């Protein structure tokens, strides 16, 4: 063996992949799928009959879980599709900064300060109004494929 030292720089993050393969024919409505590199919730699935080349095709209509855009894809039912790992975590809202970032309390007592307020207008006004009234608010944060966004709000009562 040589006595030289080798240093390898890793550009990828350690841990789980952002997606996993699943056969197109097994993906159902209300499941998740990656269409055009975006994580989507499946709102419609239709399957065509086998054609002369022998593959039944699945037509997926999905809504991007972060920006609400409608995306479509057609895949042979025997082929694999990417399915995103989607997580949903609840955090207590501590503060809203003037530049649109929120401060959230994690389960282990630390704060999470890297999330912006949601772009959805009704959710945004609910959060701002509830926070302005001094209510205890819990926000649900959806994360998939390296993106995170506040997707829901729960009111757990007024602050004591």
UniProtKB/TrEMBL annotation:
GO molecular-function term, one example from the UniProt record: translation initiation factor activity
Alphabetized CDD domains for the sequence: S1_eIF5A
PTM: eIF-5A seems to be the only eukaryotic protein to have a hypusine residue which is a post-translational modification of a lysine by the addition of a butylamino group.
PROSITE patterns the record matches: IF5A_HYPUSINE
UniProt entry keywords in alphabetical sequence: Hypusine, Initiation factor, Protein biosynthesis
Translation initiation factor 5A C-terminal domain ranges (all copies): 85-154
Keyword Protein biosynthesis annotated: yes
Comp. bias intervals (Basic and acidic residues): 1-12
Gene Ontology biological-process entries: positive regulation of translational elongation; positive regulation of translational termination
SUPFAM superfamilies, per the entry: Nucleic acid-binding proteins, Translation proteins SH3-like domain
Pfam families named among the record's database cross-references: eIF-5a (PF01287), IF5A-like_N (PF21485)
Location of region: Disordered: 1-21
Lineage top rank: taxon: Eukaryota
Coiled coil: none
InterPro entries given in the database record: IF5A-like, IF5A-like_N, IF5A_C, NA-bd_OB-fold, Rib_uL2_dom2, Trans_elong_IF5A_hypusine_site, Translation_prot_SH3-like_sf
Free-text function comment from the UniProt entry: Translation factor that promotes translation elongation and termination, particularly upon ribosome stalling at specific amino acid sequence contexts. Binds between the exit (E) and peptidyl (P) site of the ribosome and promotes rescue of stalled ribosome: specifically required for efficient translation of polyproline-containing peptides as well as other motifs that stall the ribosome. Acts as ribosome quality control (RQC) cofactor by joining the RQC complex to facilitate peptidyl transfer during CAT tailing step.
Family designation: Belongs to the eIF-5A family.
Matches recorded under NCBIfam families: eIF_5A
Name assigned to this protein: Eukaryotic translation initiation factor 5A
